Predict the 3D structure of the following.
Amino acid sequence: MEDSIVMRRLMLIVLALGLASGQDSKMKYLLTTPAVMPYPSNQTVCVYVMLPDSNTKIVTSLTAKSGTSSFNTEIGDGDGQLYCNTFEIPPPMNGEEEVATVTVDITSDVQKQSMSKDVIIRPIRTEIFVQTDRAIYQPGDKVFIRAVDFNEHLIANNEKFTEVTIQDDQGNILKQWQNPEPKSGILDLSFNISPNIRVGDLKITVTKNNLVADTTIAVDKFVLPKFEVEIEAPAETTIHQTTFPISICCKYTYGKPVRGQLIGKICRYAIFSSDHICKAIDGK
């Protein structure tokens, strides 16, 4: 009786070991993929396969609204290995973002497994910045234009712009460039304002695919340009200080520094008399 109980227990142990061995022999794998795939870019999808069978085939696919692209890989049995494929990300159909699917199908002579993960295809956001060398011009002046197309990582795009146009305030096109090409990501252009132009505003429009940026400059007869003076000095000093720092900066309203000579004075005003102590300052 006791021998029979022991035999049954041994059979149960052998059966359990057999089941465990069968489970361990089952092929296991791990899929790694970016959750967000920017367009345009190339993205890598990897599959780690542990305990592959002989004649194992891996099919890795990326399915978007525009279609499906796949890679086929054949492997043999052996230890765990990592298999990676690089996909060229297609443009999202709506121009904003879409949900795509990464699928892995693993097939061998004795088993078949598959797994899918949803990913987001999102266009890299870009923006055009355009500026001129100053804001106000006279008839006959030369205008210098600079435009840059930055992506969300502040990397300049070196592809050609679609169009750059110069229009007066009546909508007339005065100058136009088709497909101008930047150098090192920066587009530099220039044009001469007609000496006989009617004073007013000129609009500069820069287009690149579906991106548009513009800026406006003024054309006027000669007027003294406006500038502002910024003074930086300590809020208070003591009578024991022999020196203290002071900074005076003059800039035009469009940002450029003013060239000229500064003449002024710094005074310590007396409260109960008119004997103020002043010191003249000058500079260029």
Observations:
- The two ends are 114 Å apart (CA to CA).
- Residues 1-24 have pLDDT under 50 and may be disordered.
- The chain has one helix and 20 strands.
